[in-house]
Design goal:
By secondary structure, the chain is of the alpha/beta class. It is built from 7 helices and 10 strands. The chain folds into 2 domains: about 150 residues, no CATH class; about 100 residues, no CATH class.
């Protein structure tokens, strides 16, 4: 179980094989959901064994499916996998390999589909439930991802709570000791933010222990390139942390640091 969880965490692409018989199985949707929590949506690929994309429905429809018998679809999937490889091969070699083995792939698919058809014709045949240990392993991965998010939010909240309440409000800017060096700096920052995001709700605080300016801009997801450049310049001799709707930025000593 631990090995499976570690492998899922290291995965860059998740391929979910789907047939007519299994596309509505709860464990298939559970697998896809678990993968989508770890990977970007475009990195979860439903591989359609005996149906076409137009026949796919339910939760799996949100992903870009690959039809197993569509050569261009399979090529697209292989190139996506190759691009994530630590040792990718040349695209032309990949295409040549696919051409050389395409008929063999189709023959193997036909054999699999025939076996599924025979199994479906047997009496009392039902989808087997997903092994419990696999489901527990994937739940563990999801819990770890949630814990990482909680830890990140907790760290941000701790930083904000330590900040001196030098705040700006919508159209009502007030700062204690506004004639001090920090007060002047905060006024300059507020002016920059108003210039790019007029009327936005913004909070600015200064943590004198950490020598850190804390800026929260709730209504936008990303900083504009001009603000990024400005905060780099203003961060000389101090740290500036900017919390946006979806992203965080850290500037220090004239440079942008990965959060």
């Amino acid at each position: 179980m631990g090995v499976l969880a570690e492998e899922l965490e290291r995965a860059k692409i998740g391929i979910v094989c789907i047939s007519r018989r299994t596309q509505h199985a709860p464990w298939i949707n559970f697998e896809a959901g678990a993968l989508s929590k770890i990977l970007d949506e475009g990195r979860v690929i439903p591989f359609l064994v005996d149906l076409v994309a137009a026949e796919l429905d339910g939760p799996m429809k949100q992903f870009q499916a690959v039809e197993a018998r569509n050569k261009s679809h399979v090529a697209r999937m292989l190139h996506a996998i190759n691009s994530e490889s630590d040792h990718p091969i040349k695209a032309e070699l990949l295409d040549k390999g696919l051409g050389a083995f395409w008929q063999e792939l189709l023959d193997q698919l036909n054999r699999i589909v025939n076996q599924m058809t025979i199994a479906d014709e047997r009496p009392d045949t039902e989808d087997q439930p997903r092994p419990q240990r696999d489901m527990v392993a994937e739940c563990l991965v999801l819990l770890r991802e949630q814990q990482k998010t909680i830890d990140t939010l907790g760290s941000r909240l701790d930083s904000i709570e330590r900040a001196i309440p030098l705040t700006t409000q919508v159209n009502n800017y007030t700062v204690k000791n506004e004639n001090s060096a920090i007060g002047v700096l905060i006024k300059a920052i507020r002016g920059l933010i108003d210039m790019h995001y007029a009327g936005v709700h913004c909070q600015v605080g200064f943590d004198d222990i950490e020598n850190t300016l804390l800026i929260t801009i709730d209504d936008f997801s990303d900083l504009s390139p001009i603000l990024v450049s400005s905060f780099k310049s203003l961060s000389r001799g101090r740290r500036i942390c900017v919390f946006m709707k979806e992203h965080g930025y850290i500037f220090q000593d004239g440079d942008y640091l990965e959060p």
